[in-house]
Description:
91% helix
Amino acid sequence: MSQGLTGSCFKQQGAFSEKDEQLRQLLTKLDNMNNEAAETLSSDDLIAIRRQLAENQTVLRETFDRLRQSQEETEMAVRRRDELNARVTQLEADYEELLGESSST
């Protein structure tokens, strides 16, 4: 399962970098527009910006969901570990008590 997640992560990183570059190019064009009043955005540029923003919003939501799920799983594992450590401590105390009772008889 972790290998599948890792493969998915690498694919997403590639998609991130490609989308990041496309968004960077659009942002550069927007920055240049501020410097050059004569240039305007075409309808294709506006569609691309809107699509990129929507895709980035989706990716961001998915990333936050995975982060939240990972945090919840980590918290559950920590709670379980603490419960098991408490149980081991109790069993050790019970065992020592039994040893003390059997050695005193």
